[in-house]
Hints:
The complex is a heterodimer.
Chain A: E1 4-13, E2 16-26, E3 31-36, H1 42-49, E4 57-62, E5 65-66, H2 72-75, E6 82-85, H3 99-109, H4 117-127, H5 144-156, E7 162-166, H6 174-191, E8 194-198, H7 202-208, E9 211-216, E10 219-225, H8 226-232, H9 236-244, E11 293-295, E12 298-300
Parallel strand pairs in A: 3-8, 3-9, 6-7, 7-8
Antiparallel strand pairs in A: 1-2, 1-4, 4-5, 9-10, 10-12, 11-12
Helix pairs in contact in A: 3-4, 3-5
Chain B: E1 4-17, E2 20-33, E3 37-42, H1 48-56, E4 63-72, E5 75-76, H2 82-88, E6 93-96, H3 110-116, H4 125-138, H5 144-147, H6 157-169, E7 175-179, H7 187-204, E8 207-211, H8 215-221, E9 224-229, E10 232-238, H9 239-244, H10 249-257, E11 306-309, E12 312-314
Parallel strand pairs in B: 3-8, 3-9, 6-7, 7-8
Antiparallel strand pairs in B: 1-2, 1-4, 4-5, 9-10, 10-12, 11-12
Helix pairs in contact in B: 3-4
The complex binds adenosine-5'-triphosphate (2 copies), iron/sulfur cluster and magnesium ion (2 copies).
One adenosine-5'-triphosphate (ATP) sits between chains B (15, 17, 22, 24, 44-50, 60, 62, 98, 279) and A (140-146, 171).
Amino acid sequence: MSLLSVKGLKTNYGPVNVLAGIDFEVAAGETYALVGESGSGKTTVIRAIAGLAPAQEGSVLFDGQEIRGLPERALRPLRKDIAMMFQDPVGSLSPRLTIGSLITEPYRIQGMRDRDLDAEAKRLLEMVNLPAHFASRYPYQLSGGQARRVGVARALALEPKLILADEPTAGLDVSVQGELLNLLNDLRERLGLAMVIITHNLNVVRHVADRMGIMYLGRLVEEGTTEEIFHKSRHPYTRCLLSANPEPDPDARLERIALKGEPPSLIRRPKGCEFRERCPMAQEICTQTPQWDIQKGHGIRCLAPLS
Amino acid sequence: MTETLLEIDNLGVDYETARGDLKALRDISFDVKKGEIVGIVGESGCGKSTLISSILKLTAPNTRFRNGEVRFKGQDLLQNNERQMRSLRGSDISIIFQDPMQTHNPVLSIGAQMVDIQHRSKAAKADKRATAAKMLAAVGIPDPEARLDQFPHEFSGGMRQRIAIAMALMSEPDLLIADEPTTALDATLEVQIIERLHELQREMHCAVLFISHHLGVIAELCDRVVVMYAGAVVESGDVRAIFHDPKHPYTRRLIDCDPGHIKERARVLPTIPGEVPDLANLPTGCIFRDRCEQAGPRCAAVPPLAGIADGHNAACWLNHKGGVS
Ligand SMILES: Nc1ncnc2c1ncn2[C@@H]1O[C@H](COP(=O)(O)OP(=O)(O)OP(=O)(O)O)[C@@H](O)[C@H]1O
Ligand SMILES: Nc1ncnc2c1ncn2[C@@H]1O[C@H](COP(=O)(O)OP(=O)(O)OP(=O)(O)O)[C@@H](O)[C@H]1O
Ligand code: SF4
Ligand SMILES: [Mg+2]
Ligand SMILES: [Mg+2]
């Protein structure tokens, strides 16, 4: 059975339909990556799972229990098992608290008063490779990457079963990023930690995710194992996205597949395939609506998939 | 010879803290020429954001300028008063902050903010609004007219970053300073921003100082690269020299750690073992010595940032006659 199972999740903000039905599952110990266009709804998906964004329709099962629409009181005990890492690292840290109180705040919220909080703060800082004296600093006295690591330490404090991580490595240098990913990989192996990770960094996805879902305009357009997606992707959007990734070589000549036009309106969604107007491979049949087609665990929403 | 636009000369900046003075920037020197795109890379916490907030004099209250000059078009900005700085920022010099919330006022609609920053223009309010909508569309935000009335928190992380970029470009600056402006953008948008900056460089001779941890973006965008470590410049040079022939062990390790080079899934990613030095308690000798695999006896003395080839400088004894012994 999956640890997390999301079905038909829909979110509207007023007239704007942000999520148009999201389905995916994550097993215990598995890392699932959500990648895709900026504004396609990735942050909304994980915020809705955690009860921090509205979801008018659909179901979110955690450990077999329906958690969509639970009131905050009912969610509180779950916050021990489901931890969030936010996209905006500095903004998500309360400016008045020291780093030491920020990372041990989860213990206080859960009423775990028997803990030696100073010792815990030291342990958590060490885990994300920050010196112990950072416990007395305030968020504005940290660099962007240091604030990001504080967010990670805080999320790991209660040894959750599931981490929902929004761009956990954005703003980290490649060495610290490597340390963090090694740490998360290690926790996954030791504690069976499951993760949903959102990232724009395609170099990172390749090394952490077991499976990945590609989002476009509030829907998944492709899903498969990380191997499949990198080597045998079939959706034109996925191909465009993967081909764009800049290479760390000033002489690299990349064969990019460009997207056409502008991102479409969310107020009046396009008819037929919603990617059609921007798709470099669109054909006549694409005026019809593509259905989710899944074969051997590789799902795709496209009427003229690539081979 | 192209004209020098920005000269940073021996800049030293401290943060005063309860543990003593943090030597956040030490002897920083480099130039940005007119129409040149210069990248700054370096480990998290090495002082990149401190450097750009110092250039703009937008520093935290516990900042102390110790020495050096920051000359823009020949004039030392550190001698400017707040009024003079304000008139430079947002006209000749534009900035995109690392944290987009530093740019956007959370209680004002995006449209109001984008109209406000056109305060130098004599156009009618409705025209300013139309310009704002056009700018949103230009950075790929759908339904731009309708979205002008929304507040910052109603946009996605990447949209906020794109709005910050759009706002910074509105004044057609001579110098754009951008602190990790593409961390929340997908690869296709990232490439569009790179193209847009190249266009500005070609058409307006706009110079750019661009901070990023994404070495792929640096390689594709920049003409020159400055590498920082623990508050100091350890290497600078042409982008090809930095990526193909790095002369400082830190630069070499940094490039080796980039997972962009590793195409098959790795269980354990490479890192640089050891810790960055404590800026309040600096070690003696070469700043990278504790973590350097090639360190030798000579590294107990500080290596100077010395020229290796035309425009290529590095601070490492390995490049000197006699090496590290
Ligand atoms: N106001 C402050 N008071 C004390 N220390 C500070 C202050 N602001 C930053 N620092 C420290 O100064 C050092 C440089 O910080 P800075 O933000 O310039 O780093 P950065 O290179 O931009 O890092 P990143 O890539 O993580 O954003 C860090 O060690 C940071 O903790
Ligand atoms: N509180 C809100 N009110 C109104 N609209 C919102 C709100 N939060 C998000 N949206 C809209 O929902 C859409 C999806 O946003 P979301 O933040 O989920 O995107 P994302 O995929 O995480 O993008 P990015 O990669 O840029 O972070 C966007 O159009 C955004 O403006
Ligand atoms: S001077 Fe010595 S310690 Fe410093 S980088 Fe060069 S070899 Fe390494
Ligand atoms: Mg997001
Ligand atoms: Mg910074």
